[in-house]
Amino acid sequence: MIYLDNSATTKPYAEVLDTYRTVSEQFFANPSSLHSLGGKSEQLLTRSREQAAALLGVEPGEIVFTSGGTEGNNLAIKGAAFAYRKRGKHLITTAIEHASAGGAFTQLESLGFDVTYLPVDRDGRVSFEQFKQAYRDDTILVSLMHVNNEVGTVQPVKEIAAFLSDKPKTVFHVDHVQGFSKVPLQLAESGIDLCTISGHKFHGPKGTGLLYVRQGTVLSPLFAGGGQEQQRRSGTENLPGICGMVKALRITREHQNEGICHLQKLQNQLFEGLRNIDGAVIHTPVEHSAPSIVNVALRGVKSEVLVHALEKDEIYVSTKSACSSKENKASAVLTAMGISDEEAEQTIRISLAYETTEQDIAVFLKKLAERVGQLKIVMR
Amino acid sequence: MIYDYLVVRFGEITLKGKNKKQFVVKLENDVRDKLRKFASLEIKRHFDDLEIKLNHETADDVLAVLKKVFGIQNIWPAIKVGTDIEAIREGVLRIANQEKSAETFKIAARRKDKRYPIHGSELNQDLGGTVLKHCDWLHVDVHDPDLRIRVDVGYHETHIYGKEVQGAGGLPVGASGKVMLLLSGGIDSPVAAYLVAKRGAIVEAVHFQSPPYTSDRAKQKVIDLAKKLREYGGKFVLHLVPFTEAQVAIRDAVPEDYRITIMRRLMFRIAEKQAAQRGALALATGESLGQVASQTLESMNTINAVTNLPILRPLITMDKIDIAKIAKEIDTYEISIRPYEDCCTIFLPKAPRTRPDRNHAARFEQKLDVDALVREAVDGIETIVIDEDAQEDVLSQLL
């Protein structure tokens, strides 16, 4: 099996599953229970938070454990908009956000907020100049993804963070779900107030994630309840999931430096190989892109058909974001980049993990060329 | 990282006379011990400082550890270049470029080799001009600069020092012997432990627990505090004293308003016994004059009467707000405010006596078998040694 859909989700590390099981069995008590069994769970939760904070270079009090990227984005965007609504009603985001962020903004618009959606260029990148023009005195929230989930384009997060660092009235949220472990991002003292990370994108369990909330940033909670997670996210803590994610975080961090170099190599190998396939149009820019994603159109072949053809070779790629691939519409990201509907329908996404090998890519390229050749004849 | 090495300057110990060597060696050992995890460092001791060659380690990581070693006054990150003026200019720029947050700077250049063709003042002008030309965010301020770049031109090489980093000050831990501290879990006593350790004492602590009135969480809280304090001392020995029986006996036999006074007198007796066993020559507490009923002069007078040991009270004249400030600096504050009951908050009288009297206290104690209560408490002590290896426990294996 060659699994090249790592931006949709990753396979959990074996060590992560061990932890998940052990914690489920031995630390099943509720961390809020007074008895000593609850105390043990609470201690493990505290330790998990400390370790996550240390690995991310932030304070333990700045970590809110969530159920994943969708919750993190919703909590950050709606939580900040509601908390600061008296300061202003203007929000800035981009036209190419993940559905969980884009959907939150649609909801906020219907509640009377004024949202500016920044356009992107041919590479899928927002322009810093346009952002500055959109910025207003009453802008209370800026939210954008660090790495685009379909094309892999890296947004000018650092420039915007620097610009906003002396504007305390504007909260800055970064959706780092695809960027984490692929494109390093400093959180502390960076101008970033909120940052969403999802556990299953780096070999953690599903249903886990964390939101970095810079000290002093106020969020209006989405869930009312027992006041867990410093009053920000009520609900009994998913301790096995949290521990599993923190373990995945540690393992990933330990391999990050060589991992990114390795991804870079694989991506170059893909770029090279794809250029030799007739009709391949690469959408992922060479500059300002994450090394983990390659988005490519294969002219003359419908992507859905290609996905199914490749699965016969036990090769798994995807058409677009898994969260929107069941809708029968061209990818909003590619449309925003000015790519025609026809070309968008011929586009696949190849996404890599540290454990993907050069051999995997070589086999994939060979099979892809074969399948594209066959399908072109059939479909003509 | 741009720096090649760190120069560690000693604090007060350089004022010592014949004993100086002893202190310096102690400090050097502490530094080596704390930096053990950085394998490629080279540490060399000079007459007045330690030179730490970074090789491939990151200066910030090493600095973070050094900032917690008592006895260090300050640390200078530095680079070494040749004596060629071009190389010196380039070195100065490397440092200036690193300090983006500074707005003003000053060059302090001198030549050890008086045959060097460029005089000190000319060097200052030359290097200052170079920085001004290349770093547009920096202005000259010779009186109170944000960044002072020191340049020492030697015979064969030039040392250029970047921004000075404040050390923890104080004396090397262990230079002053051992102290037994009464650690409650509140905000004050960990700060007292820190300050006593800073003056060179090895601090061990007694903590009184009264299960089931106090919980495992309260115990964990004290262990977590000890872990923080360990970062300064190297290891931390914690004695957990079973105190339920004594507290129940006091509750049953002593008038309500004297319970705290008698309880404190028992604690001091127990701490004194444990101090004797562990070779500690003084007790220490986090008391601050007048803060609570047991910390009035009358209370201290009455409580002190049970021991002859010196009692160090580093917080005695400090305001609560200043104590909390230090607690935040040393990272114990967040742990201390966890809300679990400790032994001082159970059986708490509604109106404790603020002006107790020695004679009354002694009379009330006649109803108790003080010696037996103290003996049983001391015999039941559980001692935990908290050092780096102890952290490799079940929990960290899961994570």
UniProtKB/TrEMBL annotation, chain A:
Keyword Iron appears in the UniProt entry: yes
Organism: Sporolactobacillus terrae
Keywords annotated in UniProt: Aminotransferase, Iron, Iron-sulfur, Metal-binding, Pyridoxal phosphate, Transferase
Family statement: Belongs to the class-V pyridoxal-phosphate-dependent aminotransferase family. NifS/IscS subfamily.
Keyword Metal-binding included in the entry's annotation: yes
UniProt cross-references to InterPro entries, sorted A to Z: Aminotrans_V_dom, Cysteine_dSase, PyrdxlP-dep_Trfase, PyrdxlP-dep_Trfase_major, PyrdxlP-dep_Trfase_small
Aminotransferase class V domain mapped to chain residues: 2-363
Protein name as it appears in the record: Aminotransferase V
Molecular function in Gene Ontology: cysteine desulfurase activity; iron-sulfur cluster binding; metal ion binding; transaminase activity
Cofactor or coenzyme needed: pyridoxal 5'-phosphate
Superkingdom: Bacteria
